Amino acid sequence: MPQDNRQPLAISCDCRKIEKLKNEWKYSGINVEQSKYTFSSFEVWNEASSRIKDTAAAYCTEFDEIKDKRRNSLLLCGQVGSGKTHCSIAVALNFLKQRIKVVYMPYRDVITKIKQNMIDQEYYACTISKYKTCEVLLIDDLFKGKINESDINIMFEIINYRYLNMLPVIVSCEFTIDRLLSFDEGVGSRVYEMSKDYIVEIEKDIQNNYRLR
Ligand SMILES: Nc1ncnc2c1ncn2[C@@H]1O[C@H](COP(=O)(O)OP(=O)(O)OP(=O)(O)O)[C@@H](O)[C@H]1O
Ligand SMILES: [Mg+2]
Questions:
Q1: Which candidate, 144, 190, 196, 138, places its Cα nearest to that of 169?
Q2: Block means of pLDDT (10 residues each) for the chain, length 213 residues?
Q3: How close is the Cα of 209 to the center of ligand 1, in Å?
Q4: Residue 138: which domain range?
Q5: Does the Cβ of 53 fall within 6 Å of ligand 1?
Q6: End-to-end Cα distance, the chain
Q7: CA distance linking residue 167 with residue 132, whole number of Å
Q8: Residue having the nearest C-alpha atom to atom 15 of ligand 1
Q9: Residue 141 CB–ligand 1 contact under 6 Å
Q10: What's the CATH number where 180 sits?
């Protein structure tokens, strides 16, 4: 009697899809805790949150048109606790759903690990190459903490590669644009130019801190 093996095939196909999705998420580096940072959980509660949400949402909508252009990036900077990370992750989750491969780079953790392993050239090249070449790179909390020449050099290598190859970045950082430029004009001005059409600078004002509302 001929066997009907359609159902097992469908199941194994779904399993493979789920496995593939899991791997894509793992590759992105976004954790389960962060998956609650969506647009729908982002409240518009003041002028700053409205600007962040509108700009991030416009970036998502227009991404397909702008992704290969000079100004293909997003910069959310300024006031601590204003929802920069939340909205950056919301964009990343939106992209992942569309199978756009985003890599999440928690700046401080990654830079510390890279510097600790800098003598291992293979490790260095391999780690850096992921951040240089991925489809979209989300740098969270750029230049957080004490920074020295090594931090600048590593970030320059990553940003300059992406700049030259028109690869988009999503950047969150707690500084003003002027302060970002003062750390390193090479890194700062590249990020600024790439994000020129999608920049939100939140005024330093405790009233804009969602944690303290
Ligand atoms: N408009 C908002 N609606 C809902 N939750 C928000 C909003 N803004 C911030 N939050 C929540 O407040 C917390 C702080 O937000 P987030 O980490 O995004 O701020 P940030 O600007 O990245 O701060 P930091 O400069 O300290 O990194 C998070 O738990 C986030 O989900
Ligand atoms: Mg943050």
A1: 138
A2: 54 75 83 94 97 98 98 98 98 95 97 92 93 98 96 97 98 97 97 98 96 94
A3: 8
A4: 30-212
A5: no
A6: 70
A7: 9
A8: 83
A9: yes
A10: 3.40.50.300
